[in-house]
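Recall that a protein's primary structure is simply its ordered list of amino acids. Everything else, from secondary elements to tertiary packing, is in principle encoded there. The following example makes that idea concrete.
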Amino acid sequence: MTRETRRSFARRVAAASTLLAGSGSVIGSAAAEAPCLPETERPAVQWRETFEVDSGKPMSFESPPAVTDDAVVVAGAAGASEFCPPAEATGNAIVSLARSSQERQWSYDVGMPVTRGIDVTGGTVLAGTVDRLLALDAADGSVQWQVDDGVSVAAAFVHDGDTVYAPVTGGSSSETSLVALDVASGTERWRFDGSDGALSTIDDLAIGDGQVYVEAETDGEDAVIAVEAATGRRNWSVTGRHRGLVGSEAGYVFTSDMGESFSQPVLASWDPSDGSEVWRTGIDRGIHEVGVASSDDTVYVPNVGFDTNHRGVEAVAFDDGAERWSNPLNEFERDVSGATMDPYASHTARPALANGTLYLSYERYVVALDPSDGTVLNYYEGETDLGGVAARDDAVYATDEGGRLTAIDPLP
């Protein structure tokens, strides 16, 4: 499964479950019985924008916004998915707002939902759908280039500022390949097709240390492959039961798997120079979402769990994998709503660090934690499940499935 397929599966299961009961922004009676949240004022909303399609229905945001010094860029869906394409290319839009005035600067109708990532580098907005990769001018939304000639984009892209790397099938090749494209022009710099083993699928990508890390199936085996970012040369590969390429941070590569019996998740660290395993550690029950945040010596790993005992975030040391702290957020959920957690509900996206605070989107909440010990410092409650969160020094931005983009004061 691709990253978005995993998330879509969790959301489809969540839709069949009972929604958690909300109690507004005031901690309820459950907090009096087992208080774990500070008595502090909830953060103020700076502004909120709601996005609708032509029919008047709200868009749905299932990914965090991309934030620059001047703009907030969001990718909304009209309700159709990559599995059920819209009858007409309308409503799945990328929209840019000025951070200072919230004025809508431009909008671009994509056609298919943007499920393969969105980001801004320099003056270019990069976006991926299941059937194309495109680059827009960040100033006016005009198309700089796009790759859409019979191409299927298998997973979210990554970039290093100058080059964007994307897994594609079709176009000039019938095989699944990793392609490197110039951000400014879209010119193909190189194409990697597995070298000594065909790539059946590519599920996830990460980038760091001058390499692109590819989670793929090759010759019937799960593998993580390190590809030299400058040349497309295969540097090394490791095979095994990899269930997620968690990311590359500060000279480390992280993968996760669910163990031999699908009951004991494992987080592993690999040496980026040769692919040798540095450490492997068991993690509290949960399936790890792709994406991490890191400080100088700690990596923060979110969980999406099919288990009421742990769905939260964990902090582990870079050098030896020792657990620094773990917060399953059970008590947070009970204290806020007085409800028992829905074990199948959608969960957190990539966490974000800003102003010495760790932020993550947790169902309909933006939760602020102390990165040193995992203590919940404060939270913001939205109206429906969040698509993701992006944090800057002066504001925290959250998207949700009801088509809202909300800017709130930094927490705590």
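The longest strand covers residues 173-182. The chain is about 5% helix and 45% strand.
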